[in-house]
């Protein structure tokens, strides 16, 4: 699981990053809201940990901007604010949970795992982009109402891309999500699967949806 921590206190970042890495999480960090928003929009994270008071762009506005852009990554808000009204404000801006500083690290981990469990079950039965439609439960794919036959791996890759549409998905993320962290999969194999998937999804006459981001990975988007 890959998490992004946006926090301007270097001591808190160091403490939380070290502890979460020991728990097995992959951690990226940002020290201000603008950098955090950029990273959150460019990469697919499983969860965001955002401090309320940030330089350049505060945590509330960052949450609002992410939700406006249909980014549904779970958000855990960190703050020293303790009033009920302030908690309601934070949750109303798009945060999924709220943790008051100072906090016990064990509670932080518990809240993170709870949000991750919750998000794993909170998905739409149907996903769509442009003329592409996917029924996740029935495992049915159509483009312009025409059925598309995909292998199991191709279907899983497509769903993962759609759940993170407009975000760059790296080879490492695909390997961990589709093949599993313990299964060795080369970049060449992933490239082959993407090639076959693109050939089926982006057929002649349709707008190309699956983009290769050189040196980074892949992105599915309609523009």
TrEMBL record:
Residue intervals of the Response regulatory domain: 2-116
A GO term from the CC aspect: cytosol
Keywords annotated in UniProt: DNA-binding, Phosphoprotein, Transcription, Transcription regulation, Two-component regulatory system
Molecular-function annotations in GO: phosphorelay response regulator activity; transcription cis-regulatory region binding
GO BP, one annotated term: regulation of DNA-templated transcription
Boundaries of every OmpR/PhoB-type domain copy: 124-222
InterPro entries: CheY-like_superfamily, OmpR/PhoB-type_DNA-bd, Sig_transdc_resp-reg_receiver, WalR-like, WH-like_DNA-bd_sf
Protein name listed in UniProt: DNA-binding response regulator
Lineage: Bacteria, Pseudomonadati, Campylobacterota, Epsilonproteobacteria, Campylobacterales
